[in-house]
Write a structure and sequence with these properties.
Alpha-Beta Plaits; 3 helices; alpha+beta; 36% strand; five-stranded antiparallel beta sheet
Length: 107
Amino acid sequence: MTAIVSVYAVFANAEEAERIGRVAVEEGLAACVNILGPCRSIYRWQGAIETSSEVPVIFKTAAEAAPALTARIAALHSYDVPAIVTWPIADALPDYARWAAESSTRR
């Protein structure tokens, strides 16, 4: 199987998620972006407990493209310290994995 991963990130709102998701696909860093519905996040920031509405996104990409994708998301993100993590994909339909890997190789 071609090595692919999911990169998970959260954004301040749907507009930011769509803007950055579109850039990732247009630049060939991600094959596909799933923008999920808003969620409530509870976290500690600068010594205080915060609660906010955020928009989670799952980017599918070739494993080798994940570091560049993560860096690009961080550069475009509105947060000082954005949550961006890479999740391994243990198994995928081979045709899907091949398509995702080929579609996320920079053009």
